[in-house]
Amino acid sequence: MAPREHWLPPALTFNSRRPTLVGAALEPSFPSDFSGRIAPRRRRLRLKDYDYGDPGAYFVTICSHERVCLFGRIREGMMAMSHFGEVVTETWREQMENTPNTEANEWIVMPKHFHAIVLIKTEEGGSRAASTRPLPRIINALKTVSAKRTN
């Protein structure tokens, strides 16, 4: 189904990754908040109806706000971590140590983002996940604890 189109007045701009509009144009419709401003709809990053607590290997990427080089810089081909990068590293290690039946042996902190492969294991002889926390809770805890430690 094609999106509805609405006329946008000249020189209308909105804060998103879309180009700034300079003249009159037709754009797909966006939901508006109560103040009448046009708010772009965020793309869903998770699969609908998928249980991220299920056993399996998950590739995780966490980006810094506005993709700023917050976690460090690359110098002479090596990552030189900032205080924020060190906090993320320490917090990630603690999260993995304190989450039973979950492993993340492969992970890396980069200047603008963090990658990890998280393995959620099954119970002995079963198909059900043995981890006490699903992936979204692990990631939310990492973000929350890291933010509290740096602020």
CATH superfamily of the largest domain: Transposase IS200-like
Total number of distinct structural domains: 2
* Helix segment tally: 2
Mean pLDDT: 76
Write the CATH architecture name of the largest domain: 2-Layer Sandwich
How is the main sheet built?
A: 3 strands, antiparallel
Notable traits:
7 strands; 3-stranded antiparallel β-sheet; disordered N terminus; 2 domains; single chain
Describe the fold and architecture.
The chain is of the alpha+beta class. It is 21% helix and 26% strand. The chain has two domains: 1-42, no CATH class; 56-150, Alpha-Beta Plaits. The chain has helices at residues 83-97, 135-150, and strands spanning 5-8, 25-28, 56-63, 72-75, 78-81, 102-109, 113-120. The radius of gyration is 21 Å and the shape is globular. The protein starts with a strand and ends with a helix. Mean pLDDT is 76; it is low at 1-30.
